[in-house]
Structures are given as C-alpha cells and as structure tokens.
Amino acid sequence: MLFYFHDIIYDGKNSKNATSAIIGAPKWANKTILAGQNHFGQMVVFDDPITLDNNLHSKPVGRAQGFYLYDRKDWFTAWLGFTFFFNSTDYEGTMTFAGADPLNKTRDISVTGGTGDFFMARGVATLMTDAIEGDVYFRLSVDVKLYECW
To answer: How large a percentage of the chain has pLDDT more than 70?
Structure first.
C-alpha cells in the first residue's frame, strides 16, 4: 500500500494552511522557524492529510497525526511517532508507526499496530522524501508492507 502525507510547517505567516507546528525547542531556538544545528532539540506535532497520490489537493483518505523530534546535533535525523487515521471508502481504522528516521533517501520504520481494517497490524513502512520546499513543506511517500501475525 502506498500513501503520501503532506506536512506544512507553521512559519509565523501561514497559520491558515499549516498542518504542523513546533511545540518544543531548546532555549537558543524558537518555536516559529526551525533552528540551525540540524534542528536539534525541536519537537513538531502534525495533523497532515494522507492521499493516494502525490498531489496535496487530492481527496484525502485520512490524516497522519503525531510528532517528530530532531534528535542529533551532529547529523540531520529525527524520531517519529504517528498514527494514520483512515476514514474513507477505501480504508477504515488506524495504523500506528514508530521509529528512528535517519533521513536517508529511503528508510524503514515499524508498523506497531492498528484498528479496523488494520486490526493488529505489524510490518514495515518504507519512507521516502518525495518533495521538499525549504523548511515549510515536505511530502513523504509511505510504502506499507504488513505481515500476518495471528
């Protein structure tokens, strides 16, 4: 299953369109724009649309809700924890993800559970940054591979 989620970070001017915001930052940083030093110490919460193609304006099949935090000063990395909330004719229920994101071209994180159509889901999600526009917008493709556990 391939999904896309679209993250628009609040930058002090785009509150109408923003789908994420910095909620934690080191004393030397601020909560309006991402800090230097690989954004170390900043925590972002998000409520992003999920689509079946890479068009931000496509009809969403759900929302990606969770957080990411930038966890290394010397290298650009993050740690992710989020849930896909589906409510469409294609999918119903949730799928939960967690793991380190070294921000390589492709990277894997764990599918740790789910509800509804994804009851007891386990597997791997391969993430790939599909588009990036400065520090304000990025789009991830999420290729989910589930395994039967029961």
So the answer is: 92
